[in-house]
Design brief:
- This protein is of the alpha/beta class and 520 residues long.
- Helix content is 42%, strand content 21%.
- The protein has helices spanning 18-27, 47-52, 56-59, 73-85, 133-184, 188-219, 231-248, 266-282, 340-351, 407-419, 430-443, 461-472, 487-490, 507-518; strands at 9-11, 14-16, 31-35, 41-44, 90-91, 98-101, 107-119, 122-131, 227-230, 252-255, 261-264, 288-294, 300-306, 354-360, 364-371, 399-403, 423-427, 448-452, 477-482, 498-502.
- A hairpin with a 5-residue loop joins β12 and β13 (300-306).
- α5 packs antiparallel against α6 and α11 (430-443) packs parallel to α12.
- The protein is elongated and about 105 Å long.
- The chain starts with 8 loop residues before the first strand and ends with a helix.
Length: 520
């Protein structure tokens, strides 16, 4: 009964008794309030008592605005009249924060659903009022947790960027000093010690790179940049990079030309395949390592196949674990660190790809990477091959402006360049670089700029390059060196007169790049 009216309710063809209809309304989990066109309350379920503290009898005949905070009452009357003109079941105040006013004057966050009820020619509106305090609390906690996670990820990203830069700095110094010593030492015993030192530095560099790669993948600092690219182009890069290593072990490196185009991140796919090919060569004592592509299915299957030692079936579940190596005990001499496949697994997940492995002990292994076919504009793959070149000595007529805020790296680079015959103008900051430029412009010109990317006071190597080109002209070439491997560095706008080098840079690689730029 609503007011003094009884409304029949049909259920399975039978008319419900008013008493049963009332029980159904009272059993609803929400408080039910029925309002007439004048905004007066004609019915209230007993759930209103636990929700707002009123007895139903107190509200009958009162204006519905009594249940609203003062600040909502004027606008609610306008909304009520608007609803009557187009009455239909719907939530009230979509995307609005709704509150009801308790009898004690406190406010309660609510969700309200409206439904029209026709009593002959009269229009009544039934409002179901639900307490959403708990839901808002949970949402608030989720928001706080998400913001906390975002801050944690940002902190991780900052830490990784700093660690990547700071940890590579001493390795960069060691690599350059080692390269300098190799050029000035003639004693055979000392030369052998320096060569072994160089191998240790390279091993340290590989381990650091692998650990930082895993950390960046775990923190979400690496974001894919998918595009179409040719499989053949990537295969040729891998041929250039691994042919010498395979030959040094007496292995045949078989790379079959592939005409397929695929759609993914070419740099990250390249990293996956480099780890797989490197592993295949490492675990193959005789025979061959093969790289091939097959497009018999909608996807393109790129396979790395070897005739190596194979993987026992019981060890297959563990090959992606960090520091796990097949057949190598924890206290024995290790070739590598067992991080390559761990990085591969994370990259595969990041790119949403599928990687399968088949292996037989004593007969070799096959790693099959499924890549989606290409469907758009081609991109140029970014080479990961190291520059190998014989470097002729420079002359004092070649002037190099060297900018690095780390004294160790700066002095080691300066020493290497001086041994090679270059004239070096060192600077530890953007301001010092500008001073060197001004001084140099009065007497001579610089032929090349070598600069670290991250510099003090928020400046970068790009700022130095821009300032140097204002003095020396737009054709000035530069080498931009960085230990930062974040997406920010990867997405730098290409410049044919700038070479990007990642720390730690080997002395031979740095000198090869210098030769190519000063003689071009």
């Amino acid at each position: 009964m609503i007011g003094n009216k009884t409304f029949p309710f049909a259920f399975c063809g039978q008319m419900l008794k008013p008493e049963l209809f009332g029980k159904i309304l009272e059993s609803a989990p929400d408080a039910i309030v029925v309002v007439n066109s004048a905004g007066l309350i004609e019915f209230v379920s007993h759930r209103i008592t636990t929700l707002l503290g009123y007895n139903p009898e107190e509200l009958i005949g009162s204006g519905v605005e009594l249940l609203l905070p003062e600040r909502f009452r004027d606008t609610h009357q306008a909304h009520r009249h608007y609803y009557e003109r187009a009455a239909q079941p719907r939530p009230m105040g979509i995307d609005l924060e709704l509150y009801a006013l308790r009898k004690d004057g406190s406010e309660l966050p609510v969700e309200i659903s409206l439904s029209p009820v026709h009593d002959g020619e009269r229009l009544l509106v039934a409002a179901a009022i639900r307490d959403v305090t708990e839901r808002k609390r949970v949402l608030s906690e989720l928001t706080i947790a998400r913001e906390s996670a975002d801050r944690a990820n940002q902190t991780k990203s900052r830490f990784l960027a700093t660690a990547s830069h700071d940890l590579r700095q001493p390795l960069q110094t060691l690599a350059l000093l080692n390269g300098t010593l190799r050029r000035v030492i003639t004693d055979s015993t000392a030369a052998e010690a320096i060569a072994q030192e160089g191998q240790a530095i390279e091993a340290m560099s590989k381990l650091l790179n692998a650990l930082l790669d895993i950390s960046k993948l775990e923190s979400g600092a690496i974001r894919p940049d998918p595009t179409d690219f040719k499989v053949a182009s990537l295969f040729e890069e891998l041929r250039t990079e691994f042919a010498t290593l395979a030959a040094s072990k007496g292995l045949e490196l078989r790379i079959h030309a592939a005409a397929q185009r695929v759609h993914s991140d070419p740099a990250l796919v390249g990293q996956i395949l480099r780890n797989l090919v490197s592993n295949a060569i490492k675990y193959t004592r005789a025979g061959w390592v093969e790289l091939r592509a097959d497009a018999r299915t909608p996807d393109v299957c790129v396979e790395v196949v070897d005739t190596g030692i194979g993987i026992p079936s019981e060890q297959l579940p563990y090959i992606y674990d960090e520091f796990y190596q097949i057949g190598v005990s924890s206290n024995s001499t290790r070739e590598g660190y067992g991080l390559g496949l761990s990085i591969v697994q994370r990259l595969v997940r990041l790119l949403g790809l599928r990687l399968e492995v088949r292996s037989e002990v004593g007969r070799g292994s096959t790693f099959a990477l499924q890549l989606p076919p290409g469907n758009g504009k081609l991109a140029t793959t970014r080479s990961g091959a190291a520059v190998q070149a014989q470097v002729s000595r420079g002359t004092a007529s070649h002037c190099v402006l060297l900018v690095d805020d780390d004294p160790g790296v700066r002095n080691a680079t300066k020493l290497l360049l001086k041994v090679e015959g270059f004239r070096v103008l060192p600077a530890g900051s953007f301001d010092e670089a500008v001073q060197q430029l001004r001084s140099c412009s009065e007497h001579s010109s610089i032929d090349l700029l070598i600069t670290d990317y991250h510099l003090p006071n928020g400046k970068t190597g790009l700022d130095v390059i821009a300032a140097a080109r204002e003095v020396a002209g737009d054709q000035l070439t530069a080498i931009l060196i960085t230990g930062d491997t974040s997406a920010m560095i990867r997405d730098l706008k290409p410049d044919p007169r700038i070479r990007l080098a990642s720390k730690p840079v080997k002395a031979e690689e740095l000198l090869a790049s210098i030769k190519a730029l000063v003689t071009s």
